[in-house]
Amino acid sequence: MELLNSLGINGKLLLAQIINFLILLFVLYKFAYGPVLKMLDERTKKIEKGMKDAEASGKKLEEIAAREKGILDEARNQAKEIVKRSEDTAAAQAEEIVIVAKDQTQKMVETAQKQIEQEKNRILAEAKSEIANLVMAATEKIIGEKLDSEKDRELIKDAIK
Amino acid sequence: MDISLVPETIFHLGSFPFTNSLIMTLVTSAIIIGISFFVQKNTKLIPRGFQNLFEAIIEYFFELVHSVTQDKEETRQFFPIVMTIFIFIIISNWMGLLPGAGTVGLHEVKEGKSIIAPFIRSGSADLNTTLALSLIAVFTANFMGISAIGLVRYGKKFLINPFKKPYFIGTFVGVLELISEMAKIISFSFRLFGNVFAGEVLLIVMLNLVPYFVPLPFLFLEVFVGFVQALVFSMLTLVFLKMAVTAHDH
User: Hey, is B17 helix, strand or coil?
Assistant: First the structure.
């Protein structure tokens, strides 16, 4: 006890210090650590949730981008197909048109030829009858007398042949 | 110059002696409680200013305790006492560095000599304070040990049957464990007391030898010592707590 006294250890003071520290511990536990730790937990949770949300939205964004790309690809393919189809159709139509035109020209040419032939024939016939008449007139003048018109004509026809 | 190992009594309240170190301890507690109320009142989910600092300290310590315990439940149990010991010791150590420590005080006549009873004396420069802290630390460790693994299993650490396997060696180890609990209290209290008291003595001596500039490096040294001692005390408490709640499987 002499030693404790010389070191200044005093039961009352010791008890006072112990009680003091316990009060401090209680107050800090109640008012500082509890709320601060709780709030830290809360914040951690909130940040975790935020990160998770951000990740989810990032994933969704990626998904949307992929889908967008798919749609674009499809549209591009469709456009290509449409262009190709229309090109094919156009080519086919052009061919058809050319064929029809050729046909028509052919027909027109044929008709024209026929008409020319007919005209020629008609003119020839006319010319023949004219010539016959002329010859008849000339012969009449030369012979001075008119032959039987029926016989005459036959004669001339034979001569022209 | 007369430096006393025993804290000087400033006044008596009844038969209760209010020593300078006790008064400083109360002031320290008041400061810490005041800060904690301030922090608690202004705690918000989105931190600003001071709150960041306190949160950083508390979170850092929480992680430190967790790195030792590796157990969420134990961390929650140990953290308050470890943190409080650290804060209390560091503030009380630094209080002893305030200007006027050991020099400004009441003039007293004791055993025919005139001495100064300084108003400021660090709480840790009083064996009563350090002994109180170490008693709390060691008793808490033992109490937590009992509540964690049961009275019987915990008691087996100290009382080992001499007629079983390691025979009297086991019993001897048990007795040593019991003594080591005593040694913990003594080493805890004297380490802190010795460091802080020596620091105060050193500062007073330097101040008396060369009053200007020369004591400055020692002042910085004492700031560092105050931090280190607080950390050592709290970390050792944490380790003892962890050891106590860990069951010894023989």
Answer: strand
Q: 73-132 in B: which are within 8 Å (CB) of A?
A: 79-81, 83-84, 87-88, 123, 126-129, 131-132
pTM for this prediction: 0.68
CB contact under 8 A, A9 and B131: yes
Residue boundaries of the structural domains of chain A:
2-160
Strand partners, A130: none
Q: Which amino acid, residue B161?
A: N
Using alpha carbons, select from B70, B62, B63 the residue that is nearest to residue B242: B70
Rounded to a whole number of angstroms, the distance from the CA of A13 to the nearest CA of chain B is 6
Residues contacting B80, CB < 8 A, separation 6+: A25, A28, A29, A33
| Chain B contact for A3 (CB, 8 A cutoff) | no
Please report the number of interchain residue pairs, chain A to chain B, with beta-carbon separation below 8 angstroms.
104
Whether A144 contacts chain B with CB within 8 A: no
Q: Does A6 touch chain B (CB under 8 A)?
A: yes
CB distance A20–B25 less than 8 Å? yes
Pairing state between β B16-19 and B9-13: antiparallel
CA distance B246 to chain A (A): 24
CA dist A4 → A9, A10, A153, B97, B168 (Å): 5, 8, 182, 26, 34
**Token pair recorded at residue B103:** 């020099």
H-helix segments, chain A? 2-6, 11-28, 34-143, 149-160
Q: Which residues of B touch A38 (CB under 8 A)?
A: none
Domains in chain B: boundaries: 9-245
Chain A residues with beta carbon closer than 8 angstroms to that of B25: 17, 20
Q: What is the pLDDT along chain B (250 residues), one digit of tens a residue?
A: 567 777 777 777 777 778 888 888 888 888 888 888 887 777 776 777 777 788 788 888 888 888 888 888 888 888 888 888 898 899 888 888 877 766 676 776 666 666 677 777 887 888 888 888 888 888 888 888 888 888 888 787 777 776 777 777 778 888 888 898 889 888 988 898 888 888 888 888 888 888 788 888 888 888 998 899 999 999 999 888 888 888 665 4
Q: Closest by alpha carbon to B13, among B31, B29, B26?
A: B26
The Cα-based distances of A110 to A89, A124, B131, B227 in angstroms read 31, 21, 135, 122
